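Q: Please design a sequence for this.
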């Protein structure tokens, strides 16, 4: 799946601009700056496919990338704090929620959680939205390289506790570091079984 061509298809700013839902897709959701775009680059092995940056609010559209012949990887704008005007952020949030609750071809949402921070209230909100929309989601822990192994377990326990309350949650989470390449092959394998 990841051996073939990966390409940017389009950036979408409104639901009526979505590509036809004629193929399965997985999306990457999470707080601003959690590492969504960087993870897509790590998965596809293309350093600058999705635009990443240290400024929260980098991704401002729903970006579709082809993965293999007939699937999409979807990079979403972040939620929570973003370095952009309030009105603009509200617009992305509405689009994000419309996408997450109304996309027939969405096979699974990956909800990214920073290994330093664990699950926050805004993550809970998104998880509840996914419950209501019956979209299965799986937690991907990011930036594991920033947390010592001895300190990870406490955070992972908090995250396990949080996802246990969500019927749409897939119980297993995946620990990753795009920086170090940790867990990327595991995530690729999971995606390959889905689409
Ligand atoms: P928005 O588009 O603003 O919502 O952010 P995003 O979730 O797409 O985050 P992005 O991929 O742009 O990454 C944010 C910052 O975190 C960048 O400076 C990345 O280099 C850094 N980053 C992402 N993944 C990792 C990781 O695994 N380890 C480390 N150390 N840094 C990472
Ligand atoms: Mg981004």
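A: Design:
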């Amino acid at each position: 799946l990841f051996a073939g061509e990966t390409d940017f298809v389009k950036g979408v700013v409104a639901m009526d601009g979505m590509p036809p839902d004629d193929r399965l897709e997985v999306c990457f959701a999470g707080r601003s700056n959690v590492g969504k775009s960087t993870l897509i680059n790590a998965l596809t092995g293309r350093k600058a496919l999705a635009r990443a940056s240290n400024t929260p609010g980098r991704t401002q559209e729903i970006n579709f990338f082809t993965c293999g012949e007939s699937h999409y990887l979807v990079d979403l704008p972040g939620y929570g704090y973003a370095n952009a005007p309030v009105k603009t952020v509200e617009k992305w949030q509405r689009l994000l929620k419309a996408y997450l609750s109304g996309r027939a071809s969405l096979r699974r949402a990956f909800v990214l959680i920073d290994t330093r921070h664990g699950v926050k209230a805004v993550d809970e909100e998104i998880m509840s939205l996914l419950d209501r929309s019956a979209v299965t989601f799986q937690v991907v822990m990011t930036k594991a390289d920033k947390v010592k192994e001895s300190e990870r377990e406490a955070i992972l326990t908090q995250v396990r506790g949080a996802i246990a309350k969500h019927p749409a949650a897939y119980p297993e989470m995946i620990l990753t570091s795009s920086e170090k390449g940790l867990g990327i092959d595991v995530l690729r394998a999971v995606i390959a079984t889905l689409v």
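Q: Thanks. Anything notable?
A: The pocket of guanosine-5'-triphosphate (ligand 1) is lined by residues 30, 32-38, 52-54, 56-59, 77-78, 142-143, 145-146, 177-179 (CB under 6 Å). The mean pLDDT is 93.
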